[in-house]
Amino acid sequence: MSVSSSPDVRVRTRFAPSPTGFIHLGNIRSALYPWAFARASGGDFILRIEDTDVERSTQAAVDVILESMSWLGMTPDEGPFYQMQRMDRYKEVLQQLREQGAIYPCYMSVEALDALRERQMAAKQKPRYDGTWRPESGKTLPPVPEGVQPVWRFRNPQDGTVTWHDKVKGRIEISNAELDDLVIARPDGTPTYNFCVVVDDIDMDITHVIRGDDHVNNTPRQINIFRALGKEPPVYAHLPTVLNEQGEKLSKRHGAKPVTQYRDEGFLPDAMINYLARLGWSHGDDEIFSREQFLQWFDLEHLGRSAAQFDEAKLRWVNAQHIKASDDAVLAADIALRLQQRGFTADALADGRLPQIVALFKDRCDTLEALADWAVVFYASEVQLNPDDFAKHVTPAIRPVLQEFAALLAAGEWSQEAIGQAIKATLAKNALKMPHLAMPTRVLTVGVAQTPSVDAVLFLLGKEKVTKRLS
Length: 471
Known about the structure:
Elements: E1 12-15, H1 25-40, E2 44-49, H2 59-71, E3 78-82, H3 87-99, E4 103-106, H4 110-122, E5 151-154, E6 161-166, E7 170-175, E8 183-185, H5 193-203, E9 208-212, H6 219-228, E10 235-239, E11 242-243, H7 259-264, H8 269-277, H9 291-297, E12 308-309, H10 312-325, H11 328-341, H12 354-361, H13 368-379, H14 387-393, H15 399-411, H16 416-430, H17 434-446, H18 454-461, H19 463-470
Parallel strand pairs: 1-2, 2-3, 9-10, 11-12
Antiparallel strand pairs: 4-5, 5-8, 6-7
Helix pairs in contact: 1-9, 5-6, 8-10, 11-12, 11-13, 12-13, 15-16, 15-19, 16-18, 17-18
């Protein structure tokens, strides 16, 4: 019975990034679905760092993977496991395959292999290893060259097909005749990617491999290695590519940003989960949903088959919806940290106004940085005036009215209601409409002509700042 059809098998998924550069949204979406499937199924999510590319792997890249997953709340149940720390185990399994005759040494030099490929391409054939060193009954192998360390190749079946039912792509069938004998250990004995992956998936009891469709070509090779080791392969789901806004594959080369940059720019982790979930999966027409809803709804049956396109404007819209729905006190705590990064002390921010400021401005912000920009106005000693708004609204004709209004505010009690009464009195006395007074007042007190309700803004600014700025 396969794992997909057995209700008794505990779901175990994995995310297995290579730390050869920063992790971007296309990579993290490949972590999101296995994490969500494990959570939705009451299973386990394992993090494995595939760091066998020693020259390109860096600790900094590992740190960004861990930091990104921590920020998004995608905590693994086990790991991180590092492949470089499992070399003894891989060599043990290689020895097992040697003993059962499933692998063999190949002494073909890189130059000979390149020449073979060139001849095959010139003859319009698929470039592949021709089995020169594959031992067969009745076959005489070439003499072993002196001083050459061989690679070890997997003896791939030559007949039949490799077939699996992919949870995204449906039935896939590859003829074994299409597959050559894969190198699974280098001359120095270090194992190669396709082999390590299979040993890891066996040892970690992985039931479902959910990964990018750039791995589809590896899958038949890996299935054959599973079978050589006497194991049934896991269920596979190969996710379509994420494209950038120009329609190219999302990658570091094509302008993708590290996941942690979205945190720094003020995106909420739950908004990122929501947006990334919709890049290849859907639940009816639901666009905005919570993390809890996503984990309740997620299944492999509703994964999309076509490439998804990243759209920053859509991401900002999703983020704005999540900011709008967030608790004011929770947002205020994040904004306080952002203001401290800009040089404001914790004591200066401890006056209790921040949750009210957040409540007033969150409906018009698509990132937490934009919300912090508004909050700065209420704590800064000076206001940055927008020159165009100033020229347009703070006219010589209105200046005496602003002086009069400032005097009225200075003399009265400080409440939103009292400020509202002072606005009405000033408008009535000077036969003006609301915008005539509200626009220049906003420009002088917060720097721009458009804000939420002017009496609420002035009240939160405080009497001293308002009268000083109006004067």
